[in-house]
Write a structure and sequence with these properties.
Chain lengths: 56, 546
């Protein structure tokens, strides 16, 4: 029973951490790329106007 | 005196939960609020909510009772649900969360109907029938668990416990909907973790420590109870391992569990949910078996094995703690029963009433049909539970497995296989539904140690048949609806709304655009000055040149 307990305490958190390390970090990297790409697009459109602020 | 304190604590907790239901009712305006909490749950909240609703009364009542009667071999049933849960988080959660946003689906049948577009109504009807059927048994099992907790822990009769449980669950679900359910699920999930730590430790301490507990268990238990394999060898052992391991697979498609994935605010944070889930499941898996083991030593001859956890709580803990933890059991029951009633209600209100019968129905009309369906479903479940009493574990094992065999192949294929079509989904769900019902009643329920090939738990063979059906029928009946390939590509990376939300939170950009108060008026002269200063002067001809 003790071996069962120790094995479970090691195995499941390790699998979850591995998933987190491999896929979550990759996901966040993709998210950052998309977010900065969207930011760049936004800046590009501003540049097209020569940066002049709109007259209100 | 002790009983009064237990009952008092118990009642205060339940009143608190009811007040949360009333509060949630005030902020529930649309069907999306009622069914998915407006898709605004953070990942911790959604994970605890999923765990509380999925583990349910069978973790707090059914599982201790099963280990009490079966011994160490019974632990394997629970063991295999952990990799099943990991598989569900890893393969279904993120994609389903995104796909249901794209298709604007609020329920699992609605999602399947829209994903398998060419046969929407038929898919929804088969899915709705399967969900409703198995949930009648599942909710019935929860009511049995609640009734046993009240009878064993508070000293009421079983009938009184039965009536109290169904009344609390129905009132609570009808009043609050998903927001109430998920609000209290977090509290209930935490209480379930406390239960899985405190009660086993109290039992081990009472029996003289870990080694003394196991020594006494080996003395009082039968040979089958003290063996991890129940004395099986060869093919029988391997068939049994496969049969029991299959118990984890239905995690992929429990409609009341996957609903939590759909409610996630940020599907891209699934990895964090995996960590919370693994912590919860590990604590539960390591702790709860000791209730069955300790119970076997302290109360060796109980006829109704589902009473063992409430009895241990009452005898081992101080009254105030016993009241809170008995409330935790009822909490576990409520968190599953209300989620399941919500799934059945939404299937009837949203999928059948608004999706098929009256597409022009208002949100409000659909909401009331959903609430009515919740009430009727609860009464049917109570009737089934009362007239065909079973152990909580057996009743859950049937409904759990049936939902898995009905939905898992169609759901996983919908998320990962572009070739999957509506005919395949309908045929697969029909095989999973009919196969589970027939196999279960033909064999008399799940048995750990089967005598013949068909005495084993039905999930393995029925799931295999349903999966083969899904593949073969899809391949034989033409292409899926248009646009599936691009939808599957879209859900493989963060959606635009996720990216916008991330940028908004980082303060990088205001997605809705600046408010009027943020716009600073600029004079025309200033614009001209800035323009000439920054950009135009270098390009202008100088006086000398001209």
């Amino acid at each position: 029973m003790l071996a069962f307990i120790i094995a479970n305490i090691i195995v499941w958190p390790t699998i979850a951490l591995t998933y987190w390390y491999v896929f979550q970090l990759e996901e966040e990297s993709i998210m950052n790329d998309l977010a900065s790409a969207a930011g760049t697009d936004s800046n590009a459109s501003e540049d097209a106007d020569n940066g002049a602020p709109e007259i209100q | 005196m002790a009983n009064s304190i237990i009952t008092g604590t118990f009642v205060v907790y339940l009143i608190g939960v009811m007040l949360i239901g009333v509060f949630a009712n005030r902020i529930t305006n649309t069907a999306e609020d009622y069914l998915l909490g407006g898709r605004g749950l953070n990942v911790f909240w959604a994970t605890m909510s999923e765990q509380a609703s999925v583990w349910s009364g069978w973790l707090t009542v059914g599982f201790p009772g099963m280990v009490y009667s079966s011994g160490l071999q019974g632990i394997w049933w629970f063991f295999w649900t952990v990799p099943g849960n990991i598989l569900a988080w890893g393969t279904v959660a993120k994609r389903l969360s995104r796909y249901t946003r794209i298709l604007k689906a609020l329920t699992l049948p609605e999602f399947l109907g829209r994903r398998y577009g060419n046969n929407t109504k038929a898919v929804i009807l088969v899915a709705a029938a399967g969900a409703a059927y198995f949930y009648f048994f599942y909710v019935g099992a929860q009511i049995l668990a609640g009734a046993n907790a009240i009878a064993g822990g508070l000293g009421f009769s079983f009938n009184a416990g039965f009536v109290i449980t169904i009344t609390i669950v129905l009132l609570y679900t009808m009043i609050g909907g998903f927001i109430a359910v998920s609000l209290t699920d977090v509290i209930q999930g935490i209480l379930m973790m406390v239960f899985a730590i405190v009660v086993p430790m109290a039992a081990i301490s009472h029996l003289g420590g870990f080694t003394a507990t196991m020594t006494q268990f080996n003395e009082v238990g039968t040979a089958a109870q003290t063996s991890w394999t129940a004395g099986m060898q060869g093919p029988q052992l391997w068939l049994t391992i496969i049969a029991v391991a299959a118990f984890g697979i239905p995690f992929l498609a429990q409609p009341h569990g996957v609903t939590r994935y759909m409610s996630l605010e940020k599907p891209s944070q699934i990895g964090y949910g995996m960590l919370v889930m693994a912590a919860f499941a590990t604590v539960a898996l390591v702790g709860v078996p000791f209730l069955g083991i300790g119970g076997q030593i302290m109360y060796p001859n109980i006829e109704n094995v589902d009473l063992i956890a409430p009895m241990l709580i009452q005898s081992l803990l101080p009254p105030w703690a016993a009241g809170i933890l008995l409330a935790a059991i009822i909490a576990a029951v409520m968190s599953t029963a209300d989620s399941q009633l919500l799934v059945v209600g939404s299937t009837i209100g949203e999928d059948v009433f608004r999706g098929i019968y009256n597409p022009d129905a208002s949100e409000r009309a659909a909401l009331w049909v959903t609430r009515g369906a919740v009430a009727v479903s609860g009464i049917i479940a109570a009737y089934i539970a009362y007239t065909t009493p079973d152990t909580v574990f057996k009743a859950v094992a049937f409904a759990w497995g049936g939902l898995g065999t009905t939905f898992a192949p169609a759901l996983v294929a919908a998320l990962w296989w572009k070739r999957a079509n509506g005919y395949g989904a309908i045929a697969s769900m029909a095989v999973g539904f009919g196969g589970a019902a027939y196999y279960h009643f033909a064999t008399g329920g799940p048995a750990l140690a089967g005598k013949g090939l068909f005495d084993y738990y039905f999930v393995g063979p029925v799931l295999l048949a349903a999966t083969i059906t899904m593949i073969v029928v899809s391949l034989l009946t033409g292409e899926p609806k248009d646009g599936v390939e691009s939808e599957l590509t879209e859900i493989s990376k963060p959606l635009t709304e996720e990216v916008d939300l991330a940028r908004k939170e980082a303060g990088e950009v205001s997605v809705e655009g600046p408010s009027s108060s943020e716009i600073i008026p600029v004079k025309e002269e200033e614009v001209v000055t800035r323009y000439l200063t920054n950009f135009a002067l270098t390009g202008l001809p100088t006086v000398a040149e001209s």
